[in-house]
Every structure is written in structure tokens, then in C-alpha cells.
Design goal:
Layout lengths: L1 E5 L5 H11 L7 E3 L10 H11 L7 E7 L2 H14 L3 E8 L12 E5 L2 H8 L6 E5 L7 H4 L5 E6 L7 E6 H12 L1
Parallel strand pairs: 1-2, 1-3, 3-4, 4-5, 5-6
Antiparallel strand pairs: 6-7, 7-8
Helix pairs in contact: 2-3
Keywords: Membrane, Transmembrane, Transmembrane helix
Protein name: Alpha/beta hydrolase
Organism: Nostoc piscinale CENA21
Length: 180
């Protein structure tokens, strides 16, 4: 399984903090989309990057982890990657508020506060999501998920959703373990 990180519009150091804070043992499986600024929104550029990196491994499962504005380009790239015959194992959107998320693959959202979590669910997501409590600033979700406390919400049973307290990094670890 490969992991593609699609950062938002922010300093590249935040992405390095994201990796070193909880993903360092998987560094050899990580591809970071290098597009800066507005390119974070560009599905064609993300697809070109994936095509260049995965020439002979198109059937290798990929987990997309995207942040903020990067969610826009990443979800469109995930759809197209699958249409082109690639395998999308899961899609994880971190603070992609306002971005509708649909696909033929599992989708998870992480939000920096309860309002963002609740209002994003109106635009669809999967059953396993996370929101920070106490609320943190937007960039903290990417800079240091290991320091963000919150709730994993499993809403597969709509009558009685289950919640578990953990950090955003622990939630991400559990998701990646599920899709390995």
C-alpha cells in the first residue's frame, strides 16, 4: 500500500511535521504531492504526479490523505485514478470543510472542531470520522495530529453512534492499519 499526501496551501514544513509526528515508520511508502499554492487544487497535476511515480504499480493500493485545500484536488484525482484502473484503498480528508466527498472507496473525515465535523457530514463521508475536542486551530490538524485530542465517531449504526477518545494521529494509525 502506498500513501499519497496532498497538502493544502501552507508552508512545506508543516507537511514534514505531519510525517515526522506520526508517519515516520512508513516514510518509504509515502509520496508527497509537491505542488505549491494553487496546484494543491489541481487534480490533473496530482494525477500526473501519481502516474510518474506509479508507472508499473497502478494496481498497487493507494490511500489518499489530504488536507484543507488539498482535499479538492485529491478527491477528483482519486476518482480519476480509479477510473484509469488504479486502486484507491481509502480517502482521508483532514479539515476539508465544504468539500463534497463521494466515491467507490471508503472515505473518512477529520475535523478541527465539532461544527466542522457536523456540517461536513451534510456533504457526505464514511462512517468512521474524527473531530477535535477541545477545538484546535486549523493548521494544528496537519502540523501535529499527535497532539490533537478528540473523538472517533463510528456512525455505522445511525441509531446509536459509537465514540472513542483518542488523538488524531491514533485515529489515522487505526485507519491505515485497517487498509494495509
Amino acid at each position: 500500500m502506498m500513501i499519497i499526501l496532498c497538502p493544502g496551501i501552507h508552508e512545506p514544513e508543516l507537511t514534514e511535521n505531519f510525517i515526522s509526528g506520526w508517519l515516520s515508520e512508513k516514510r518509504d511508502k509515502i509520496m508527497v504531492f509537491p505542488g505549491q499554492g494553487i496546484l494543491a487544487l489541481s487534480a490533473p497535476h496530482i494525477l500526473q504526479f501519481l502516474g510518474d511515480r506509479c508507472k508499473n504499480r497502478q494496481n498497487s493500493p493507494i490511500v489518499f490523505i489530504s488536507f484543507s485545500a488539498g482535499v479538492v484536488g485529491a478527491i477528483a484525482a482519486a476518482w480519476n485514478w480509479q477510473i484509469w484502473g488504479g486502486q484507491v484503498k481509502a480517502f482521508i480528508a483532514i479539515d476539508g470543510w465544504g468539500v463534497p466527498l463521494w466515491g467507490d472507496f471508503p472515505i473518512h473525515r477529520l475535523s478541527h472542531d465539532y461544527f466542522t465535523h457536523w456540517s461536513s457530514l451534510l456533504l457526505s463521508s464514511g462512517h468512521n470520522n474524527f473531530y477535535a475536542e477541545p477545538t484546535v486551530d486549523h493548521l494544528s490538524m496537519w502540523r501535529s495530529p499527535q497532539n490533537v485530542q478528540g473523538w472517533w465517531v463510528d456512525s455505522s449504526n445511525e441509531d446509536s453512534p459509537q465514540k472513542m477518545r483518542l488523538t488524531a494521529a491514533e485515529f489515522l494509525h487505526l485507519l491505515l492499519k485497517r487498509y494495509e
